[in-house]
Amino acid sequence: AVRCAAWLGIVYKANFANFTAANGWLTRAERLIKATGPSTLHAWIWLARAYQNPDLPAARLLTEQALQLARSDGDVDTELVALSQLGRIKVGLGDTDSGLAMIDEAMAAALGGEGSNLDTVVYVCCDMLNACELAVDVERAAQWCDVADDFIESYGSPFLYAECRLLYGGVLVAKGK
Q1: What is the pTM of this model?
Q2: How far is CA 99 from the centre of its chain?
Q3: How far apart are CA 125 and CA 164, in angstroms?
Q4: Cβ pair 32, 5 in contact under 8 A
Q5: Which residues contact 9 (CB under 8 A, 6 or more apart)?
Q6: What are 57-66's pLDDT values in tens digits?
Q7: Would you state the pLDDT for residue 163?
């Protein structure tokens, strides 16, 4: 229930820009998790809170906390999402080289099949497109999109760009496609 509530918080923000519903679901997740000890479920709540937080330094702290917990628990999917989100945040804060290096690592691992959930690939690819837009790095976005297109062809994952169609469209335009 906690993971579903956290994902609904992400979906309401990402797909509908409905911050009220997103906040409601995240508040629900936080209430449901109060009786448990630290786990990657906490990391998902921190990631979701950071995802909708316009205060990038605060979002960075939440995401770093989630990344540390995911790594200590050995949860690869949560780690890759946290790594890509932290990379996007770093790019937003002006630490472009470090942020894009994190994005590249997360993309390589996600598209290489290290995670177990296709949603991980979607989240990481969306972060990549957002970070590349912030960094005005169309070439990097185009190269990763080529790799992601191969992934879609192999795994039948047409929803990969559902949340980032506009950014992906920009990459295709820039590539002349």
Answers
A1: 0.87
A2: 13
A3: 8
A4: yes
A5: 22, 23, 24, 25, 26, 29, 48, 52
A6: 999 999 999 9
A7: 54
The full 3-state SS of the chain, as one line of letters, equals CHHHHHHHHHHHHHHHCCHHHHHHHHHHHHHHHCCCCCCHHHHHHHHHHHHCCCCHHHHHHHHHHHHHHHHHHCCHHHHHHHHHHHHHHHHHCCCHHHHHHHHHHHHHHHHCCCCCCHHHHHHHHHHHHHHHHHHCCHHHHHHHHHHHHHHHHHHCCHHHHCCCHHHHHHHHHHCCC
Residues near 39 by Cβ (< 8 Å), separated by ≥ 6?
69, 73
Residue-wise pLDDT tens digits, 117-160 = 888 988 899 899 999 989 989 899 889 988 888 877 777 665 55
17 Rama class: left (phi>0) / alpha (psi -120 to 50) / beta: left
| 161 has a pLDDT exceeding 70 | no
* pLDDT reported for residue 63: 98
State how far the alpha carbon of 6 is from the alpha carbons of 10, 21, 38, 63, in Å. Answer: 6, 11, 15, 14
pLDDT at 168 over 70: no
First to last CA, the chain: 42
